[in-house]
Amino acid sequence: MDPVEWADVLDRGAMALARQRQQGEHHGSFRAHAILHVAYGALLVLWFALWLGAPEWGHRARSRRFPLPREVFGMVMYAFLDLFKIVFPNFSVVPCLALPITG
After folding, report:
1. Are 67 and 44 a contacting pair, CB within 8 Å?
2. What residue spans define the domains of the chain?
3. Residues 6+ apart with CB under 8 A from 14
4. Quick one: pLDDT at residue 6?
5. 29-84 per-position pLDDT tens digit
6. Which residue of 2, 13, 17, 50 could cross-link 36, Cys pair, CB 3.0 to 4.6 Å?
7. How far apart are CA 6 and CA 55, in angstroms?
8. Is 93 within 8 Å of 37 (Cβ atoms)?
9. How far is CA 75 from the centre of its chain?
C-alpha cells in the first residue's frame, strides 16, 4: 500500500469520527478509532522499516532540499521516531482502551 492510500485510510477514519461526533453517535466510534490506530501503527512500522532498510535513499531524497550531514540526519530521524513512539500510544492506544469503559 503506497503513502497515498494510507493517507486515504487516515482521512476516511477522521471523517467518520467527525461525522459521528456531529450526529451524536458514540456506539460506532470504537471501530473508527480502531481504523485510525491501525493506520498510525502501520505508518510507524513503515517509517521504521524504511529508515532501517534504505537510510541512504532517505538521506539523498531529503538532502536535495535540506542539506544535512549524514550523522545529523540520523539523529533527526531517530528523534522523530522516538517522538512518534511516545505520541502514538498516548493519543491512540490509551483513548482506544478508555473508549469502551466510558461509553
Report:
1. no
2. 3-102
3. 36
4. 63
5. 667 777 777 888 888 888 888 888 888 887 888 788 888 898 888 888 888 888 88
6. 13
7. 21
8. yes
9. 20
Per the listing, cell 467527525 goes with 18
Residue 51 is which amino acid? W
CA distances from 53 to 7, 64, 87, 100 (A): 22, 20, 23, 38
Rounded to the nearest 10 degrees, the angle between the axes of helix 55-63 and helix 29-53 is: 90
- The amino acid that residue 17 corresponds to is L
Q: What does the alpha-carbon distance between residue 73 and residue 17 come to, in Å, rounded to a whole number?
A: 36
51: CB partners within 8 A, 6+ apart: 58, 77, 81
The burial of 83, by beta-carbon neighbours within 10 Å (0-12 exposed, 13-18 middle, 19 or more buried), is given as: exposed
Question: What's the grid cell of residue 64?
Answer: 536535495
For 62, phi and psi rounded to 5 degrees? -90, -25
- Cβ-based neighbours of 35, under 8 Å, separated by 6 or more: 9, 12, 13, 16
